[in-house]
Amino acid sequence: MNKPLANHVALVTGASRGLGAAIALELGERGAAVAVNYLNAKERAQTVAEQIRRQGAKGDIFKADVRDEKAVNQLIASIERQLGAVDILVINATGPQPFIRLEKLNWRDCQDQLEFFVKSPLLLTQRVLGKMKELRWGRIIQIGSEVFERGVPEFSSYVAAKGAQLGLTRSWAMELAPWNITVNLVAPGWVPTERHAGVPQAEIDRYAASVPLKRMGTPQDVAAAVAFLASDDAAFITGQKISVNGGNTL
Question: 31: helix, coil or strand?
Fold first, then answer.
């Protein structure tokens, strides 16, 4: 198989399961050395890294809370020592996403989401940016969500943070274009993963029926879009939101 991402180093945050794991595996399949970031699920992260190595690419695990500045500094330093300079950054890590009625919503609830979708992208991007500018090549890919367009009720803390993440993407794309660094966002619809294990099948079926393509998305659908944006085929694409949701926000 052609390995278009050979000689590149990718960091995927929150890569021990779900979308992050699928993205890490796809990038490894295409030849990238992959840093599999995790916070708690070490065994799952090890499994992902082992699969990457079986594909013939380099893969290793790196524990870090990507909301913490010191931890991010240590994370990037460790990756640089073990794999090389990160030139593909996939910002995927997330936390709990509770539904909260407006009457019950407080500022801490909003901050919890902003730490994942504004603070973490800022810390990570600042830390890898110097090397990308030296190389005059880089790919920054954020994982957003369709919720910003759909305006999901009782979900405003998450929706607002995802909107802020899209704003970062657009502004950074303009700022970093002179260094040939592209910044894009992949916005999935509802893609069932391990975190949705307790959701009733009837609820999944209702959502799928509302999607123009009449099915749920898969982690591989999202991973393929990320891998495309990481490749040279996407060299003239920046500042964009790519919706991977079967047409659900048309």
Answer: coil
Annotated catalytic residue: which of 38, 62, 158, 228? Answer: 158
- The per-residue pLDDT for range 95-128, each reduced to its tens digit, is 999 999 999 999 999 999 999 999 999 999 999 9
pLDDT of residue 197: 74
135 class by beta-carbon count within 10 Å (0-12 exposed, 13-18 middle, 19+ buried) = middle
pTM comes to 0.96
Region of 41 (left: φ > 0; alpha: ψ -120 to 50; beta: rest) is beta
Q: Compute the average pLDDT of residues 128-143.
A: 98
Q: Domains plus CATH for the chain?
A: 9-244 (3.40.50.720)
Question: Taking 80 as the threshold, does the pLDDT of residue 195 lie above it?
Answer: no
Are 61 and 114 spatial neighbours (Cβ–Cβ below 8 Å)? no
* Amino acid type, 125: T
How does pLDDT run across 56-98, given as a tens digit for each residue?
Answer: 999 999 999 999 999 999 999 999 999 999 999 999 999 999 9
Q: Which amino acid is at 27?
A: L
Is 207 one of the annotated active-site residues of the chain? no
